[in-house]
Amino acid sequence: MKKPGTLLKSQRERIVRTAARLFAQRGYHAVGMTELQDAVHLGRGALYHHIRSKEDLLFDIAREYISDLADDASAAQQQADARERVRLLGRHLVQKIASHQAELTVCFREVQSLTDARHAEVMALHARYEHAWREAFELGAAQGHFRPYDAIVLKGVLGMYFYSYLWMRPDRAMSPDDISLRFNDMALRMLARDPT
Amino acid sequence: MKKPGTLLKSQRERIVRTAARLFAQRGYHAVGMTELQDAVHLGRGALYHHIRSKEDLLFDIAREYISDLADDASAAQQQADARERVRLLGRHLVQKIASHQAELTVCFREVQSLTDARHAEVMALHARYEHAWREAFELGAAQGHFRPYDAIVLKGVLGMYFYSYLWMRPDRAMSPDDISLRFNDMALRMLARDPT
Questions:
Q1: Contacts of A133 (CB under 8 A, 6+ apart)
Q2: How many CB pairs under 8 A join A and B?
Q3: Cβ within 8 Å of A, B 81-140
Q4: Together in a domain, A165 and A93
Q5: In the structure, what pLDDT confidence band is assigned to residue B26 with cuts at 50, 70 and 90?
Q6: Assembly ipTM
Q7: pLDDT band at residue B10, thresholds of 50, 70 and 90?
Q8: Which of A94, A146, B70, B111 is 20 to 30 A (C-alpha) from B122?
Q9: Which residue range is the domain that position A153 belongs to?
Q10: Of B109, B158, B192, which is closest to A109 when you measure between CB atoms?
Q11: Does residue B129 sit in the same domain as residue B177?
């Protein structure tokens, strides 16, 4: 049996996921709180018991997936071989994009709609996550596997992965694991010490 | 001396560019027509002489840069060597992102705010542009330079380039040509026949 706290948490999660889906489909500004009430089958009072405002929802949507990714990236630092660390970071990123495509869509589109302090917090999480990739690239250079660290290579590799929120279709024949195998191979080509 | 038609065209271009900058900075929904009037120093009547609605502006912003890119890509098909064709496509793309960063920002964020027919037209231009890259990749495979065509590689390469609209800073020490040299090198690594 679930504890009441767990139930409340999953209720809030359900609201956040539904809001992400609606915002991704129709735009943050186009979706009203009444529409969200209908979609989650809650009255106004019950909905506002869980969230305070539409901007609160946007903040949770923009923060959660990147916060998870930054935590995964910290865990990946246990991996001592830089090439394996890149593969692990890449696999987690593709999996997160596949499972949270609506959240990424909303964040990429609407992050500037957050208040300054919240915008700064979300951007700091992104910077923390990007730094974990940078450390893997620098480690690989020190280990003799990768070329010397280059910020443009970092941006190129991250762009390849992140851009997939725009085209990935989880219902297609290709699984997120298949996509990450191909992307990881390309990332390692981009990073390889000797030019082809 | 400019002909009146030229003057009208440049007036409209000035309005579209200013609108792109405002929409990119503050969000399409947040910017009102009165604010745009002030920014372009035109009265309501003069502004509406050039554009019919805010959505008209969004359509022009989203369509112009990708339409130019699709035209450049058709011209690049004169280039018989697939590697040179990729370098040319890459250089034009980075140059366009640098010169039209506000337009790309607005298009990536707001394309779903267009009416269905206009949305379809903008997406068809993107598909036409993507197809020119695909043809270069297929040509390179036929010429023995590239690995067999793979849609995931195409998406990865385009993601690397397009994602730069989020981080490129034209005022920094690195020029668009420097960035495209690095990106083109990475694209050719991703495409190379023999794995590294």
A1: A73, A86, A89, A154, A157, A158
A2: 87
A3: 108-110, 112-113
A4: yes
A5: confident
A6: 0.92
A7: confident
A8: A94
A9: 54-191
A10: B109
A11: yes
